[in-house]
Every structure is written in C-alpha cells, then in structure tokens.
Write a structure and sequence with these properties.
Mean pLDDT: 74
Largest sheet: 5 strands, parallel
Helix content: 25-40%
Radius of gyration: 29 Å
Strand order of the largest sheet: 2-1-3-4-5
Low-confidence stretches: 34-42
Oligomer: single chain
Number of strands: 5
Strand content: 5-15%
Distance between the termini: 52 Å
Order of helices and strands: HHHEHEEHEHEHHH
Structural class: alpha/beta
Length: about 220
C-alpha cells in the first residue's frame, strides 16, 4: 500500500507550466489503479468451497434411468455385496426433482431421448450424469440401428463414462469415485458464474431515440 501523500495542487500546476514552457508534450492523465484484494482475501472463500464440495460428493441422491440390461448391474451395485451407499450415494431417489445424479444405463432410443432430456432438466442444480454401459456411451452393438441414439451425450451433458457391455458393478463404483473426485475439484464460482452478455447483445434490436430539436 502506497502511503506517499499526493502532490499539492500548486506543485502540480507549476510542473505542468514548466513542461509546457519546455515544449514537451503533455503526458496523458492516468487513472488511479483499482484496489486489489490481498492474498488472504483471495483465499477466504476456499474453506467454504471445500465444505460445499465435501457435502455434495458424499450425499448424491441417484435417479436411475434404467433402459436395458445395464440397469440390472446398477441394482447389483446397490445391493449388500457392493453397497455403494457406503460411498455416500443414496439409490432410488423419489423423482428427478429430489436427485443429484442421473445414471443412464441401457440403450437410449430416439423415441426415449426426449424423456431423458425432460427428466434431466427437472433435476435441480448442481446435477451430474453418469453414462453406464456401451449402449449409453455410443449406442453399443446397436449403434447402426435407425432408432438408436448414438450416445446419451448428444442430448444431455455427461460427467463420467463407464465402459462395458454390460459393465460389472465394480466399474460403476469406480465411476462414482471418479465423479466424487471431480466434484471435490469443482469451483462453485466458475460453475455458477453469471454469463456476461456482449455489448452487441445489449444494444441490438433497440429502438433509436428520436433526435432532439437542436440536433436537426
């Protein structure tokens, strides 16, 4: 922080007069530099980010969108042998409005795609998606069918892909761990930063005000 007192008005006038008498061009007036936050202020939100991410990663309510045989492996992963509840994942949310994580398991057809997208849009933020199985990832063995969507990521964003046909329950556990690692590194300020519209978007399509009488 600069504690040097600003020069007085008289000294500034004399300096400007001397510069003008010498014939030197006047220096452009510089705006005062904005105050910057110190390192402690920049680190202040970090503990809050850690707490929020810790709470989200270990309290994921799952909305299982089971479409084919991969849904059976999801059920197996939620049973006592594998028990992904110990990872902080609660299966079988009452509905999409109470869910944080959608697991799309099975073949997504073009007829089912609007329903997948509509239910995803009903989930509250923050929300995440795991694509479970080859059919959900890219269409699987039915990729060349006229009625199969070539991957659920064509209609909704996907956070983690779990390969396999069908994947074992251990693969789903690994995918959940990968998602939790991603949530732990997530920045809430970047995820929920409001989009700043461009100047063209703010001024485009506006009605030009009428000219004043003096301007005519």
């Amino acid at each position: 922080m600069d504690l040097t007192p600003p020069p007085s008005e008289g000294a500034a006038t004399e300096a400007a007069g001397a510069a003008g008498a010498a014939g030197a061009p006047e220096a452009p007036q510089r705006l005062p530099e904005p105050r910057r936050l110190g390192p402690l202020a920049r680190l202040a939100p970090e503990p809050m980010k850690v707490v929020l991410n810790w709470g989200r990663r270990y309290s994921l309510w799952v909305f299982n969108f089971g479409l084919a045989c991969c849904a059976i492996e999801f059920i197996a992963a939620s049973m006592a042998r594998h028990d992904f509840i110990r990872l902080g994942v609660i299966p079988f949310a009452p509905g999409p409005r109470q869910a944080d994580l959608m697991v799309v398991s099975g073949t997504v057809t073009d007829k089912m795609a609007p329903a997948v997208k509509r239910l995803y849009e009903q989930m509250p933020e923050p929300k995440y998606v795991i694509s479970f199985g080859a059919c959900s990832n890219c269409g699987g063995p039915y990729w060349d069918s006229y009625s199969v969507t070539k991957g659920v990521d064509q209609i909704i964003p996907v956070d983690v892909y779990v390969p396999g046909c069908p994947p074992r329950p251990e693969a789903l556990l690994q995918g959940i761990l990968k998602l939790q690692e991603k949530i732990a590194r997530e920045s809430t300020s970047e995820r929920y930063a409001p989009a700043r519209p461009s100047a063209r978007a703010l001024t485009g399509g506006l009605v030009t005000p009428p000219a004043a009488d003096g301007d005519r």
